[in-house]
Amino acid sequence: MLTEFLEIERKYQRLLSEMTQQFGVTVSEWLLLVKVNAGTNTQASLARELRVDVSTLSRQLKGLVGKKLLAKIPTHQKQVQYEISATGTTVFAQISQAAEKLTQQLFGQLSAADMAKVREFMTLLDHRMNHLVLKSRKVGIN
Asked: For residue 82, what is the enclosing H or E element?
């Protein structure tokens, strides 16, 4: 079963990558836009929420600022906050539409009841994976 999950994940990542590349961003950059658009706007909070190291995040943020999709806003506490720019808002909306279309292509044939089952299964799987990750950090993978 693990190989099936890996294959599905590989295909899903390819589809997401193709989708985001149409708009000149990576999947990771798109996820940053999602978080900043939702109000997570400091490097520390983004790193925490996305569970990425600060150096990787810093490069991604610099890339989005360079593409003029994010703007750096200095604060009084000598921190930098990020906000989505006008161009970023446009690109974010376009990617969101493409993501919705992809979601419909993947799940549009399912009934509401089937979608509820998929969501329930994904939630259970996520909880179980979180448990295993925490356990593996403590004692190593069993």
From this structure: strand 80-84
